[in-house]
TrEMBL record:
This is Predicted PurR-regulated permease PerM. GO terms for biological process: transmembrane transport. The chain crosses the membrane at residues 12-30, 36-54, 66-92, 150-172, 213-245, 257-282, 303-336. GO terms for cellular component: plasma membrane. It is found in: Cell membrane. It is a multi-pass membrane protein. It comes from the Bacteria. Keywords: Cell membrane, Membrane, Transmembrane, Transmembrane helix, Transport. InterPro entries: AI-2E-like (IPR002549). It comes from Micromonospora pallida. Its main location: membrane. Belongs to the autoinducer-2 exporter (AI-2E) (TC 2.A.86) family.
Amino acid sequence: MSSPDDRRTARRAAIVIGLVLATLLGLGLLWAVRRVLVWILLAAFFAAALKPAVDHLQHRLVRRRALATLLVFLAAFVLLAAVGALIVVPLVDEVVRLVERAPELARDVRAGRGRLGELVDRFGLRRYAETHGEQLQDYGERLRRPALSLARGAVETVVATITVAVLAYLMVLESPRMSAALLALSGDGAGDRLRRIGRECGQAVTGYVTGNLVISLICGGLTFVVLLALGVPFAAVIALVVAVADLVPLVGATVGALVAAGAAFLHSPTAGIVTLVFFVLYQQVENHLLQPVIMGRAVRLNPLTVLVSVLLAAELAGLLGALVAIPAAGILQILLREADLPRRLFHRPG
């Protein structure tokens, strides 16, 4: 017959095993729905950024929440579509011109004429193409195989974008009801405090979006000046591409730099080298000066906190972590201040 101590030990072991299994089950469920969680997180980010505009429009011009939300989202969509048109239309025109000139360019390459012919001769590419024709053809066949996966990825991206937009729209639309329900559960005493916390958290996200736009405009403006001074064609379009790409954390600035440097190299090797040097120097200034200072003022964080939060979040969660690092740090600072945690940790009674 087991003693009471044995039964308590067995009960504790069963509780520990149950907690471990429940934790593993919860982590497994989170991993299984990670894509949906990412969509929800992105939707909440965009909803927090657009909610102040919806609130302002509803209080000043439109009384109906649904109409105000629809107008703000339509305005955001039109703005994004206009920026996309400014980028895509010139690129499509250039692609069409390139396709029309393809036979002439091919003749120039075979004859060693023109800039492409000179490059082919300089790097020995024609001799390589002649001696490795079958191998290049095999590479071409391999490149056709991932076409289906690329098409599937494009469809998934479109679905994800639509889903995030719909979720953000519904979050903004239903935010007053959700806030009212939360305030009703919290009681009358905490209502004003929760409203203030929610307002400050929304301002942190809005400040981050505004600061990010300012940094991207600075990057695009400087890129336009450099490309225009070097005489690179379509400097304005390329600068707009760089500014839009710079909105994406981590990889955006690099992608924009590659696009601009590639266009500059096509114009001349000197322009390409100058553009590369410019972007290497600018990215150092942006990462270690512009982003900490501008984001620190926009989100009301000190520059060191901004830089450390971005580095840690990017290391832990990659692109998504870098995207939400600064507003998350701002929200965490607000919650810690409201909880008065530093005083509670370091205050010694008596």
